[in-house]
Write a structure and sequence with these properties.
Elements: H1 5-33, H2 36-44, H3 48-62, H4 65-77, H5 83-96, H6 98-107, H7 117-128, H8 133-158, H9 180-197, H10 200-212, H11 218-231, H12 234-240, H13 245-267, H14 269-282, H15 290-301, H16 303-310, H17 319-350, H18 354-364, H19 371-374, H20 388-417, H21 424-455, H22 461-497, H23 503-528, H24 535-564, H25 570-601
Helix pairs in contact: 1-8, 3-4, 3-5, 4-5, 4-12, 4-13, 5-13, 5-17, 5-18, 6-17, 7-8, 9-11, 10-11, 10-17, 11-13, 11-14, 11-17, 12-13, 13-18, 14-17, 15-16, 15-17, 20-21, 20-22, 20-23, 21-22, 22-25, 23-24, 23-25, 24-25
Length: 606
Amino acid sequence: MDYSLLDFLGLLGAVGLFLYGMKVMSEGLQKAAGDRLRNILGAMTRNRFSGLLTGIVITALIQSSSASTVMVVSFVNAGLMTLGQSMAVIMGANVGTTFTAWIISIFGFKVNVSVMVLPLIAFAVVLLFMKKSRTRSCGEFLIGFAFLFMGLDMISTYVPDLQSNPEMFAVLKEYSSMGIASVLLFTLVGIVVTMVIQSSSAMFAITLIMCSKGWITFDLACALVLGSNIGTTISPLLASMSGNVAAKRAAMGHLLFNLLGTLWCLCCFIPFADFNAWVTERLGMGNPNELYTFVNGLEQSNPEQYNHLFDNSLPAGHDVLTRIATLQLSVSFGLSMFHTIFNLVNVSIMIWLTGLYVKIVKRLVPNAHKEDEEFNLKFIKGGLVGASELNLAQAEKEIVVYAQRVGRMVDMGQQLIHTEEGGEEFNRLLSRLEKYEDISDRMELEIANYLYRCSEGRLSNEGKLRVAAMLGIISEIESIADSCLGIGKILLRKTQSGAEFTKEIYDNVDSLYVYVKEAMHLMLAELENVENISEKELIQSYNKEREINNMRNALRTANPENINSKRYSYQAGIYYMDIISDLERTGDYIINVVDSIREQFRRHMA
């Protein structure tokens, strides 16, 4: 097989066309669907069984478990899907990929979508000149879809054509009679070849050719198919390399699912392969083991006829050709049955262990540093695809983490008030508060820069409004952090002046802190569930803001009388009122975030 540098460059170009098609298709879909895409995904994966069904259907439609699992990894990276949800979809993808095997088994070829590419582009171009933004986005989606399959078709043209050159595998015939060692070897071959050609379906076709030539038995063909299940995990693993920790965990979950499934199957491989041969025979499709026996018997008894068989010189309708065709159908059906039963049994066992899978994957792919959970950005680490609408979901998730971290500063400020000034614990808490405020500044800047980059991409009008709202929200959250640090600065001035707070002051400050923390809790809940926010939740936030203002006014009114009554010193009263004003401003910043949520997401309110 000749493979030149020009062929290799053609392969690179085909991959580039494929990736560009994926980018355009993804952006077009997101612009057309807008923020409804997240709701659709949420509905499709609301429990493990609906997620399983989603994986089956999507993979059966696009005929590629690699493509569907890469898509799942990108959704996890974008924060659109949790790790647990992705496990169920990935499990379904493994069942859905058997659909292609059945097409090959029944029709003898893979449905060729590429023939529709040019008519699809012709139709899509018309949509690009329509007035409606959503219609134009649908046109972009169709063009991206066409480019994607055009790229796939060109990749199959320029990749080293192993499928049409099965002689490369003839050497494996020498290792087909070593018992369980042969099973392990052929499983490894299935893994490696599928990694190279990036298609378990192509591996399935190669396996059929090897069986037809009498090189391997049915059980070794099953071993090749088994290995292809692990080999197909390489695509999502490569795709996850540029993603965040969640994406890497989703890809690792795919590998773990297929690896554990292969291990249990290898433990009972011979009985399991025999069972599938028995099922095939009972269904009237013949015994798939007979093809190997027939071809090798023909080679021994009639070598000349054997050679004519494989140089296609036997006349049409010859008895040998008829017999071979019948036995090939039996083997094809048996391998499809093996592939399907294996994945169904695997899913039936593993679907109940989704929670355990998540724990194992988190152990296998931990955060790079302990500080990652506490301080570093968790969701914004660069998308797998330049898809701006999906990237907005990453930013929304990051803003929730940002708000949660700043929320901890509110607790730190209250704890600092009750810590003896000038002591080691006071200095430690103040230093921690300053560190958090510095992190808050950096997070605001990083999220803002990320949002600006998103706004430079292809965004729907809804997406642009969402960016503006998020920029306002992070500014208010950073102001909350400034207010929390302001408490520490007030306490430092109080220490330097020698003023002392009374129990009454501490009690009043704690009472106002209760309201502020409740307001913060409500704001966080709204940010976490921003797509489904209700009018009732918003009213609770506004009521809490009024309670903060009312208490601030009451304490401010009572302060002069308390100073005149000598209940505390004038100097203490000044710092006391500074803290009260600071807390009231914190409440203002919180309600500003709620206002932004109400304005941007009012169409979602119940």
